[in-house]
Amino acid sequence: xxxxxxxxxxxxxxFLLLVYDLFVNSFSELLRxxxxxxxxxxxxxxxxxxxxxxxxxxxxxxxxVFQAGLVNLLFHKFKGTIVLSAxxxxxxxxxxxxxxxxxxxxxxxxxxxxxxxxxxxxQRLGKGQAPSWTPTHTHRPQPQSRQWAGPxxxxxxxxxxxLGLLGNGSSTFP
Length: 174
Prior knowledge:
Number of strands: 2
Radius of gyration: 29 Å
Number of domains: 1
Number of helices: 6
GO cellular component, one term: cilium
Structural class: mainly alpha
Helix content: 55-70%
Membrane topology: Multi-pass membrane protein
Family: Belongs to the TMEM138 family.
Oligomer: single chain
Order of helices and strands: HHHHHHEE
Function: Required for ciliogenesis.
InterPro entries: TM_138 (IPR024133)
């Protein structure tokens, strides 16, 4: 089960992976002269996106909704996050393959085709719309403390047998 200290660690790791993703998206064009370094950065970025998706699913598995067997409810509620995260991963991989194919042989020339620009826009839109959600209800709620309200009087519909079980045959419980 995920504890509060572990939850902050997982959230920090997920945040660092997203910051790396943002960094590579922002500055990968500056490394177009070194295609090998750009390729390594793209591979690490795709692995980081995959790790973020894995973290999202691991957080799903730690919820009580999932453990109670209501998987369909959980996935129905967060299908937008799951679909957009998967679409962003696919679009990122497609974009990276296309960019590296165009620029590998001639890295000094700036190549930007219409199809690459359309894929670039869809890939960036997919990232902007996909929230990085993690379930927050991973801990059991603490039981509420009850105050003593005194004896409870319940109506008794049973005939009084006079057995003296409660002393005087009343239906008042302490």
